[in-house]
Amino acid sequence: MEDKKLYTNLKVGKPKDSVIEIEGEIPTNIIEFHRQEVLDEVKQEAEIPGFRKGNAPEEMVLKQLDMNHVLEDAAEEALSIAYPAILDDNHIVPISSPRVTFVKLALGSPLEFKISIAVEPEVDLPNYKKIAKAVKDTKKQAEATDEEVEEIIKQLLTMRQGEDGKLPELTDDFVKTIGKFENVVDFKEKLKTNIKAEKEMESARMRYEELAKKLADESKIKLPSLLVEDEMYAAHGRLHRELEKRKMSEEDYFKLIKKTEEEYMKERKEAIERQFKTKFILKAIATKEGIKADEKEVEKEVEHAATHYTDTNPEAFRSYIEEMLTNEKTLKFLEEASW
Protein backbone atom coordinates (compact mmCIF):
# COMPACT_ATOMS: atom_id res chain seq x y z
CA MET A 1 0.00 0.00 0.00
CA GLU A 2 1.62 3.22 -1.17
CA ASP A 3 -0.87 5.43 0.68
CA LYS A 4 -0.80 4.30 4.27
CA LYS A 5 -3.46 6.72 5.50
CA LEU A 6 -6.14 4.58 7.08
CA TYR A 7 -8.98 7.06 6.62
CA THR A 8 -9.79 10.39 4.91
CA ASN A 9 -12.43 13.13 4.87
CA LEU A 10 -13.28 12.56 8.50
CA LYS A 11 -16.07 14.58 10.10
CA VAL A 12 -16.58 14.28 13.84
CA GLY A 13 -19.81 15.75 15.12
CA LYS A 14 -20.31 17.35 18.50
CA PRO A 15 -21.83 15.10 21.15
CA LYS A 16 -25.62 15.07 21.08
CA ASP A 17 -27.20 13.35 24.06
CA SER A 18 -23.71 11.94 24.71
CA VAL A 19 -23.54 10.27 21.28
CA ILE A 20 -20.97 11.29 18.66
CA GLU A 21 -21.56 10.77 14.95
CA ILE A 22 -18.46 10.16 12.84
CA GLU A 23 -18.40 10.17 9.04
CA GLY A 24 -15.47 9.43 6.78
CA GLU A 25 -13.94 7.38 4.00
CA ILE A 26 -11.37 4.63 3.69
CA PRO A 27 -9.27 5.01 0.52
CA THR A 28 -9.81 2.68 -2.42
CA ASN A 29 -6.30 1.24 -2.26
CA ILE A 30 -6.79 0.28 1.42
CA ILE A 31 -10.05 -1.49 0.63
CA GLU A 32 -8.47 -3.25 -2.36
CA PHE A 33 -5.55 -4.41 -0.20
CA HIS A 34 -7.94 -6.00 2.30
CA ARG A 35 -10.15 -7.41 -0.46
CA GLN A 36 -7.11 -9.21 -1.87
CA GLU A 37 -6.24 -10.50 1.61
CA VAL A 38 -9.76 -11.91 1.98
CA LEU A 39 -9.52 -13.58 -1.45
CA ASP A 40 -6.14 -15.10 -0.61
CA GLU A 41 -7.54 -16.53 2.65
CA VAL A 42 -10.55 -17.97 0.83
CA LYS A 43 -8.36 -19.57 -1.85
CA GLN A 44 -6.15 -21.19 0.81
CA GLU A 45 -9.18 -22.72 2.52
CA ALA A 46 -11.14 -23.60 -0.65
CA GLU A 47 -12.00 -27.29 -1.08
CA ILE A 48 -13.03 -28.13 -4.65
CA PRO A 49 -13.47 -31.74 -5.85
CA GLY A 50 -10.42 -32.94 -7.80
CA PHE A 51 -8.01 -30.54 -6.13
CA ARG A 52 -6.11 -30.53 -2.89
CA LYS A 53 -7.21 -27.97 -0.32
CA GLY A 54 -5.90 -24.56 -1.35
CA ASN A 55 -4.70 -25.72 -4.80
CA ALA A 56 -7.80 -25.15 -6.91
CA PRO A 57 -7.44 -22.69 -9.83
CA GLU A 58 -8.30 -19.13 -8.90
CA GLU A 59 -11.02 -18.79 -11.53
CA MET A 60 -12.84 -21.85 -10.14
CA VAL A 61 -12.68 -20.46 -6.61
CA LEU A 62 -13.95 -17.06 -7.72
CA LYS A 63 -16.96 -18.62 -9.44
CA GLN A 64 -18.13 -19.96 -6.08
CA LEU A 65 -17.77 -16.66 -4.24
CA ASP A 66 -20.25 -13.91 -3.57
CA MET A 67 -18.02 -10.93 -4.33
CA ASN A 68 -20.29 -8.60 -2.37
CA HIS A 69 -19.58 -10.63 0.76
CA VAL A 70 -15.87 -10.49 0.01
CA LEU A 71 -16.05 -6.70 -0.30
CA GLU A 72 -18.02 -6.45 2.96
CA ASP A 73 -15.41 -8.57 4.76
CA ALA A 74 -12.67 -6.34 3.35
CA ALA A 75 -14.51 -3.23 4.53
CA GLU A 76 -14.95 -4.67 8.02
CA GLU A 77 -11.26 -5.53 8.26
CA ALA A 78 -10.20 -2.09 7.02
CA LEU A 79 -12.52 -0.28 9.43
CA SER A 80 -11.51 -2.47 12.37
CA ILE A 81 -7.96 -1.17 11.87
CA ALA A 82 -8.96 2.43 11.18
CA TYR A 83 -11.41 2.69 14.08
CA PRO A 84 -8.84 2.71 16.95
CA ALA A 85 -6.78 5.26 15.02
CA ILE A 86 -9.85 7.50 14.58
CA LEU A 87 -10.55 7.36 18.32
CA ASP A 88 -6.93 8.02 19.23
CA ASP A 89 -6.42 10.85 16.73
CA ASN A 90 -9.58 12.62 17.88
CA HIS A 91 -9.20 11.93 21.63
CA ILE A 92 -12.50 10.06 21.82
CA VAL A 93 -13.05 7.65 24.72
CA PRO A 94 -16.05 5.45 23.87
CA ILE A 95 -18.27 3.85 26.51
CA SER A 96 -20.34 1.73 24.12
CA SER A 97 -19.76 -0.52 21.17
CA PRO A 98 -19.80 1.38 17.84
CA ARG A 99 -22.80 1.31 15.52
CA VAL A 100 -21.35 1.13 12.00
CA THR A 101 -23.10 1.83 8.71
CA PHE A 102 -21.50 1.38 5.28
CA VAL A 103 -22.94 4.34 3.42
CA LYS A 104 -21.26 3.44 0.13
CA LEU A 105 -19.44 0.22 -0.64
CA ALA A 106 -18.50 -0.48 -4.27
CA LEU A 107 -15.59 -2.09 -6.08
CA GLY A 108 -13.03 0.51 -7.16
CA SER A 109 -14.40 3.22 -4.85
CA PRO A 110 -13.57 4.49 -1.37
CA LEU A 111 -15.63 3.08 1.48
CA GLU A 112 -17.95 5.71 2.91
CA PHE A 113 -18.89 4.97 6.51
CA LYS A 114 -20.77 6.36 9.46
CA ILE A 115 -20.10 5.48 13.09
CA SER A 116 -22.23 6.30 16.14
CA ILE A 117 -20.52 6.00 19.49
CA ALA A 118 -21.52 6.84 23.07
CA VAL A 119 -19.23 8.97 25.21
CA GLU A 120 -19.36 9.79 28.90
CA PRO A 121 -22.28 12.13 29.63
CA GLU A 122 -21.92 15.48 31.32
CA VAL A 123 -23.44 15.71 34.78
CA ASP A 124 -24.98 18.88 36.17
CA LEU A 125 -24.78 18.14 39.88
CA PRO A 126 -27.34 19.34 42.41
CA ASN A 127 -26.42 20.45 45.93
CA TYR A 128 -25.26 16.95 46.84
CA LYS A 129 -24.02 18.05 50.25
CA LYS A 130 -27.50 19.22 51.20
CA ILE A 131 -29.03 16.00 49.85
CA ALA A 132 -26.50 13.83 51.71
CA LYS A 133 -27.15 15.70 54.97
CA ALA A 134 -30.92 15.26 54.63
CA VAL A 135 -30.50 11.52 54.10
CA LYS A 136 -27.95 11.29 56.92
CA ASP A 137 -30.38 12.99 59.31
CA THR A 138 -32.80 10.08 58.82
CA LYS A 139 -30.27 7.68 60.36
CA LYS A 140 -31.60 5.90 63.42
CA GLN A 141 -29.63 4.07 66.07
CA ALA A 142 -29.81 0.33 65.43
CA GLU A 143 -30.60 -1.80 68.45
CA ALA A 144 -31.24 -5.50 69.03
CA THR A 145 -34.00 -6.29 71.51
CA ASP A 146 -34.16 -9.23 73.91
CA GLU A 147 -37.34 -10.32 72.11
CA GLU A 148 -35.46 -10.56 68.79
CA VAL A 149 -32.72 -12.60 70.43
CA GLU A 150 -35.25 -14.99 71.96
CA GLU A 151 -37.08 -15.36 68.64
CA ILE A 152 -33.88 -16.41 66.83
CA ILE A 153 -33.03 -18.80 69.66
CA LYS A 154 -36.51 -20.31 69.33
CA GLN A 155 -35.99 -20.79 65.59
CA LEU A 156 -32.57 -22.35 66.20
CA LEU A 157 -33.90 -24.81 68.77
CA THR A 158 -36.75 -25.76 66.46
CA MET A 159 -34.26 -26.52 63.70
CA ARG A 160 -32.41 -28.84 66.13
CA GLN A 161 -35.62 -30.59 67.21
CA GLY A 162 -35.12 -34.27 67.85
CA GLU A 163 -36.98 -37.15 66.19
CA ASP A 164 -39.10 -37.48 69.32
CA GLY A 165 -40.36 -33.92 68.83
CA LYS A 166 -38.52 -32.60 71.89
CA LEU A 167 -36.61 -29.32 71.63
CA PRO A 168 -33.05 -29.27 72.95
CA GLU A 169 -32.31 -27.17 76.02
CA LEU A 170 -30.30 -23.98 75.66
CA THR A 171 -27.28 -24.93 77.76
CA ASP A 172 -23.59 -24.04 77.79
CA ASP A 173 -22.78 -27.40 76.20
CA PHE A 174 -25.42 -26.91 73.48
CA VAL A 175 -24.18 -23.47 72.34
CA LYS A 176 -20.64 -24.85 72.10
CA THR A 177 -21.88 -27.33 69.47
CA ILE A 178 -23.04 -24.53 67.16
CA GLY A 179 -20.09 -22.15 67.35
CA LYS A 180 -17.21 -20.71 69.32
CA PHE A 181 -19.20 -19.62 72.36
CA GLU A 182 -18.05 -19.86 75.97
CA ASN A 183 -21.53 -20.22 77.44
CA VAL A 184 -25.17 -19.18 77.01
CA VAL A 185 -24.49 -15.61 78.14
CA ASP A 186 -21.66 -15.24 75.61
CA PHE A 187 -23.90 -16.74 72.92
CA LYS A 188 -26.73 -14.28 73.60
CA GLU A 189 -24.37 -11.30 73.68
CA LYS A 190 -22.80 -12.23 70.35
CA LEU A 191 -26.20 -12.96 68.86
CA LYS A 192 -27.38 -9.51 69.90
CA THR A 193 -24.24 -7.97 68.41
CA ASN A 194 -24.85 -9.78 65.10
CA ILE A 195 -28.49 -8.68 64.96
CA LYS A 196 -27.43 -5.08 65.56
CA ALA A 197 -24.75 -5.31 62.84
CA GLU A 198 -27.27 -6.70 60.34
CA LYS A 199 -29.69 -3.89 61.15
CA GLU A 200 -26.92 -1.32 60.66
CA MET A 201 -25.98 -2.85 57.32
CA GLU A 202 -29.61 -2.84 56.17
CA SER A 203 -30.03 0.73 57.36
CA ALA A 204 -26.87 1.79 55.48
CA ARG A 205 -28.11 0.03 52.32
CA MET A 206 -31.46 1.80 52.52
CA ARG A 207 -29.78 5.19 53.07
CA TYR A 208 -27.51 4.55 50.10
CA GLU A 209 -30.48 3.69 47.90
CA GLU A 210 -32.30 6.81 49.07
CA LEU A 211 -29.21 8.95 48.46
CA ALA A 212 -28.69 7.47 44.99
CA LYS A 213 -32.36 8.05 44.13
CA LYS A 214 -32.37 11.67 45.28
CA LEU A 215 -29.08 12.43 43.51
CA ALA A 216 -30.39 10.87 40.28
CA ASP A 217 -33.71 12.73 40.55
CA GLU A 218 -32.06 16.10 41.10
CA SER A 219 -29.05 15.76 38.77
CA LYS A 220 -29.25 16.73 35.13
CA ILE A 221 -27.78 13.88 33.10
CA LYS A 222 -28.68 12.47 29.70
CA LEU A 223 -27.60 8.86 29.38
CA PRO A 224 -26.56 7.82 25.86
CA SER A 225 -29.11 5.37 24.47
CA LEU A 226 -26.34 3.24 22.93
CA LEU A 227 -24.86 2.54 26.37
CA VAL A 228 -28.21 1.45 27.77
CA GLU A 229 -28.87 -0.71 24.69
CA ASP A 230 -25.50 -2.45 25.11
CA GLU A 231 -26.21 -3.28 28.76
CA MET A 232 -29.76 -4.42 27.97
CA TYR A 233 -28.34 -6.78 25.34
CA ALA A 234 -25.73 -8.08 27.80
CA ALA A 235 -28.36 -8.52 30.54
CA HIS A 236 -30.60 -10.50 28.19
CA GLY A 237 -27.64 -12.68 27.26
CA ARG A 238 -26.91 -13.40 30.93
CA LEU A 239 -30.55 -14.31 31.51
CA HIS A 240 -30.58 -16.60 28.48
CA ARG A 241 -27.43 -18.44 29.65
CA GLU A 242 -28.79 -18.83 33.16
CA LEU A 243 -32.09 -20.26 31.90
CA GLU A 244 -30.20 -22.66 29.63
CA LYS A 245 -28.40 -24.01 32.72
CA ARG A 246 -31.75 -24.48 34.43
CA LYS A 247 -33.23 -25.98 31.25
CA MET A 248 -36.03 -23.42 31.42
CA SER A 249 -37.58 -21.41 28.59
CA GLU A 250 -37.97 -17.65 28.83
CA GLU A 251 -41.72 -18.11 28.52
CA ASP A 252 -41.78 -20.37 31.59
CA TYR A 253 -39.48 -17.99 33.48
CA PHE A 254 -41.75 -15.00 32.91
CA LYS A 255 -44.72 -17.10 34.07
CA LEU A 256 -42.78 -18.06 37.19
CA ILE A 257 -41.99 -14.44 38.13
CA LYS A 258 -45.53 -13.40 37.09
CA LYS A 259 -44.40 -10.76 34.64
CA THR A 260 -44.71 -10.30 30.90
CA GLU A 261 -41.52 -9.99 28.89
CA GLU A 262 -42.35 -6.32 28.30
CA GLU A 263 -42.73 -5.68 32.04
CA TYR A 264 -39.49 -7.50 32.82
CA MET A 265 -37.52 -5.60 30.16
CA LYS A 266 -38.99 -2.28 31.30
CA GLU A 267 -37.89 -2.96 34.89
CA ARG A 268 -34.44 -4.05 33.73
CA LYS A 269 -34.05 -0.89 31.66
CA GLU A 270 -35.06 1.32 34.58
CA ALA A 271 -32.62 -0.50 36.88
CA ILE A 272 -29.79 -0.18 34.33
CA GLU A 273 -30.48 3.53 33.91
CA ARG A 274 -30.40 4.03 37.69
CA GLN A 275 -27.10 2.16 37.94
CA PHE A 276 -25.46 4.21 35.20
CA LYS A 277 -26.78 7.50 36.56
CA THR A 278 -25.40 6.65 40.00
CA LYS A 279 -22.06 5.66 38.46
CA PHE A 280 -21.60 8.93 36.58
CA ILE A 281 -22.93 11.10 39.43
CA LEU A 282 -20.52 9.55 41.96
CA LYS A 283 -17.67 9.98 39.48
CA ALA A 284 -18.58 13.66 39.00
CA ILE A 285 -18.67 14.23 42.79
CA ALA A 286 -15.33 12.44 43.23
CA THR A 287 -13.76 14.58 40.51
CA LYS A 288 -15.13 17.80 42.03
CA GLU A 289 -14.00 16.85 45.54
CA GLY A 290 -10.64 15.41 44.45
CA ILE A 291 -11.47 11.96 45.81
CA LYS A 292 -9.25 9.15 44.51
CA ALA A 293 -8.73 5.50 45.31
CA ASP A 294 -5.71 4.70 47.46
CA GLU A 295 -3.04 3.33 45.12
CA LYS A 296 -1.82 0.78 47.68
CA GLU A 297 -5.36 -0.61 48.06
CA VAL A 298 -5.70 -0.81 44.28
CA GLU A 299 -2.41 -2.71 43.97
CA LYS A 300 -3.45 -5.09 46.75
CA GLU A 301 -6.74 -5.91 45.01
CA VAL A 302 -5.08 -6.29 41.61
CA GLU A 303 -2.47 -8.68 43.04
CA HIS A 304 -5.24 -10.67 44.72
CA ALA A 305 -7.10 -10.95 41.41
CA ALA A 306 -3.96 -12.04 39.57
CA THR A 307 -3.64 -15.09 41.84
CA HIS A 308 -7.32 -16.04 41.82
CA TYR A 309 -8.53 -15.00 38.37
CA THR A 310 -5.81 -15.77 35.86
CA ASP A 311 -7.98 -15.00 32.83
CA THR A 312 -8.81 -11.46 34.02
CA ASN A 313 -7.75 -8.56 31.81
CA PRO A 314 -5.29 -6.65 34.07
CA GLU A 315 -6.07 -3.18 32.70
CA ALA A 316 -9.84 -3.69 32.76
CA PHE A 317 -9.71 -5.11 36.28
CA ARG A 318 -7.49 -2.28 37.54
CA SER A 319 -9.96 0.24 36.12
CA TYR A 320 -12.85 -1.60 37.79
CA ILE A 321 -11.06 -1.71 41.17
CA GLU A 322 -10.14 1.98 41.00
CA GLU A 323 -13.75 2.89 40.24
CA MET A 324 -15.12 0.64 43.01
CA LEU A 325 -12.74 1.97 45.67
CA THR A 326 -13.27 5.56 44.56
CA ASN A 327 -17.04 5.08 44.81
CA GLU A 328 -16.64 3.65 48.32
CA LYS A 329 -14.59 6.67 49.39
CA THR A 330 -17.10 9.05 47.81
CA LEU A 331 -20.03 7.42 49.60
CA LYS A 332 -18.08 7.48 52.86
CA PHE A 333 -17.35 11.16 52.25
CA LEU A 334 -21.05 11.87 51.76
CA GLU A 335 -22.02 9.73 54.76
CA GLU A 336 -19.51 11.01 57.27
CA ALA A 337 -18.92 14.66 56.38
CA SER A 338 -20.78 17.28 58.37
CA TRP A 339 -22.10 20.40 56.66
Keywords summarizing the entry:
4 domains; elongated; alpha+beta; Alpha-Beta Plaits
Quick one: overall form?
elongated
Strand order of the largest sheet: 1-2-4-3
User: How many separate structural domains?
Assistant: 4
Total beta strands: 6
Radius of gyration: 30 Å
Which secondary-structure class do the elements indicate? alpha+beta
Q: Architecture of the largest domain in CATH?
A: 2-Layer Sandwich
Percent helix range: 55-70%
> Runs with pLDDT <50, length 5+?
none
| Average of the residue pLDDT scores | 90
Number of helices: 12
CATH homologous superfamily designation of the largest domain: Trigger factor ribosome-binding domain
Largest sheet: 4 strands, antiparallel
- From the 3D structure, determine the CATH topology of the largest domain: Alpha-Beta Plaits
* Strand fraction: 5-15%
Give the CATH class of the largest domain: Alpha Beta
Distance between the termini: 64 Å
Written as H for each helix and E for each strand, in order along the chain, the element string is: EEHHHEEEHHHHEHHHHH
